[in-house]
Structure formats: C-alpha cells, structure tokens
Specification:
This protein is α/β, with parallel strands linked by helices. It has nine helices and seven strands; from the N terminus they run H-E-H-E-E-H-E-E-H-H-E-H-H-E-H-H. A hairpin with a 2-residue loop joins strand 4 and strand 5. The longest helix has 15 residues. It is globular, with a radius of gyration of 17 Å.
Length: 198
C-alpha cells in the first residue's frame, strides 16, 4: 500500500488533527526573484513547508504551526546541528544550513514567512521541527535567537515522534479511526503495544 507522505508527516497530521487543527501539506516557497541575494541557479528550486496546521479556536503563536519533518534515523541533536550551521559544516551530503534554509538564510526565511502568511492569513506562528528521536536537549534549539530573528520574531520548537504518538494514543477510543495512521495506532493498542512516554 503506497502512502502519499513520509510517515513522520502523517504522524504530524494525525497529531495536529487530534488537537483540532486543519492541516495542509507541502506548501511551496521560494525567495523573491528581486531579493538582492537571489541567485537564479541556486534559488529557483522550491523548498516546501511539510505541514501547516491552522487552529480556528486558538489565538497567539500556536494558532498556526509550520512543521519541518526530519526523520533522521540517527536522531536529531540540536546543539550539534547548530554547531554545524555556525561552522558551515557538511552534514548528510550537503551544507548543514541547507537543511534549515528557512531558519538560516534571510532570503529563504522571508519566503517561508510569506508562505505561512499567504496560506493562513496569519503573521504569528510557531516553527516546529518534528523529529524521529531527540538526542540531547531541545533548549539550545528553542532558545537560539538567530532562528527567532529569521522567523520574524516567531518561536521555534521541537516535537518528537514518541511525544506525538503518546498523545495520539491517549486520545484514541475503540471507535474506528478515520485515518490510516489512526487505525494503525489503534491496532498497536489492541495488540498491547502502546508507546511509553519518555
């Protein structure tokens, strides 16, 4: 059976829907072509926001969440990623900053913030990095001021696969879930295979 999105994206969607968000996938964005730093052969391929969630009843910077999924099997180490970005290191076959261009490159940051505003009509949002596994503390990432500056003052946070699945499982009932991911998690529960919180 084929799935249309990465499994982490599907878990993010399920998690957000359980929290009352409306969800959209793969929102494309680019730097402005008239941006002074725009380089045609480097900046013409779209990047995308993996998942945007919009909560109609919430206010503040959690009304909209813009999620970037990093399903790296070795885990996500915030302090190491920041050191690699600051040191202009190569990680996973490319410059470290390129995996986080919306947080590290002003022309891409502007395009990202504009795409969130265009998709939701909202200026305030939270940038969420969804990860398979957290290695170390999330504090370095969430307190890193250059990210907040890149996001026009909006916060950045991290959420793990385990945290999302644990919360989803806590809200599931025996009524047949409406999504494939929800049904799969119900099957795990029925088989006594519940994910334990950290």
């Amino acid at each position: 059976m084929a799935t249309k999105e990465d499994i982490l994206e599907q878990i993010v969607e399920e998690y957000l829907v359980h929290k009352g968000y409306f969800v959209q996938h793969n929102i494309k964005f680019l730097p402005r072509k008239d941006h002074p730093d725009f380089v045609l052969n480097q900046d013409s391929n779209h990047s995308d926001i993996d998942v945007i969630g919009y909560h109609p009843l919430m206010e503040g910077d959690r009304k909209v969440v813009a999620v970037s999924c990093k399903s790296w099997q070795s885990g996500f180490n915030p302090a190491a990623e920041i050191r690699a970005i600051e040191g202009d290191k190569v990680r996973r076959g490319r410059k470290a900053w390129q995996a986080f261009r919306e947080l590290t490159s002003p022309k891409w940051s502007e395009g990202f913030v504009g795409a969130v505003r265009e998709a939701t009509g909202v200026e305030r949002f939270t940038h969420v990095t969804a990860v398979a596994k957290l290695v170390g503390s999330r504090q370095a990432w969430e307190d890193y001021q250059p990210f907040r500056a890149a996001l026009a003052g909006n916060p950045a946070t991290i959420i793990t696969f385990r945290e999302m699945v644990t919360e989803i499982q806590g809200k599931l009932t025996t009524t047949l879930a409406s999504t494939e991911v929800g049904r799969m998690l119900q099957m795990f529960l029925a088989a006594d295979m519940k994910v334990k919180p950290d």
